[in-house]
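From the pipeline queue, job 12 of 40. The input is one protein chain; the requested action is below.

Action: predict structure.
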Amino acid sequence: MLYHLFQYLEKIFVFPGSHLFNYISFRTGLAFIMALLLSTMLGRRIINYLQKKQIGETIRDLGLEGQMKKKGTPTMGGIIIIIAILLPTFLLANLTNTYVILMLITTVWLGLIGFLDDYIKVFRKNKEGLSGRFKIVGQVGLGLIVGMTMYLSQDVVIRENKEVKGKTERVVKVLYSKHDVKSTKTTIPFVKNNNLNYADAFKWTDRPQRYGWILFVLVAIFIVTAISNGANLTDGLDGLATGSSAIMGVILGILAYVSGNINYSGYLNIMYLPGTGELLIFAGAFIGATIGFLWYNAYPAQVFMGDTGSLTLGGLIAVFAIAIRKELLIPILCGVFIVENLSVVLQVSYFKFTKRRFGEGKRIFKMTPLHHHYQKQGNAGIQAIFQRPIQAMPESRIVIRFWIVGIILAAITIITLKIR
């Protein structure tokens, strides 16, 4: 809203300083600071309110060190993150930008699903929370909205990079067409051309573009569902999901900026995506909100984000990557979330398979999601393929090591733009 106000003031009254709001970097910095202050200052008030209303976490005794000390810690703290993201974005972003609108819809949509899940757990005293079926329906619905919006909106366009080579076959410059086009192309890592067209899978049909968009929508649905659930599973240790999300947010912000700036896109030889630069303001708010929340969520946590926060953070990361056509980089960037997800899937599948075949279920890990594997003693009487480490690791060490892995994956994500 401030963006539109200062646009008006500059146009009508030539208001001093109003031109600063034309700069994405300036508004991003403001969004980051505002979100950081909101999440830290407002966070304390919300935590006190949650404590007063006795909205605390119910803990199952899984035999993990320090686990029962967390009983009664305020939950549903994801409300802090959501407010700290929404308010700066509303004030500082261009609210007519399709990409920004998509991110706002995602925040509210998944925030409501997560809030409903936490509400059932806390107030209805139902440990199962919202039925998994309804969560999946909500995630699939959001993926459908995102995919269809990108298909139907005339503002969601690209300009493909065209290489101009010299005599030595070395690329001397990158050119872009003068006109924006609707396309099913996306970025693929480690490939020379760096672009993948979903429609190429349907060249044998009479309507490859239409079927390509159908495939794109299905991919969007899968990614939104997988990453939001992955973030939800990762939120099991103090600060783990919050810090990991902040790292991913930084990289997505960088990718949005270079993709939305024709000069940087040309330098990196990637697709130019008009309008995606505006997503940097949202990324600034996202990073500020997660770092600010980490003030209270770091070990030992004073508040948990609950599904209100974890589902929202995972969904935002997924939709952001889809919006800037970097969804195929998610297996690298979101490696922590994906491994946490896979550890549960593999554990359950292997247990069911061995029980059916041998009459006794066996495990791959001592416990899942994966971060709990490191909290469990190796000689705890659990027959698992992987018993190491023998000694249980302190929670804070596990979290920091997962962050380090996340930083390494983030660096690899960036350099994939040049490694082809």
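Job complete. Residues 20-160+195-331 form one domain.
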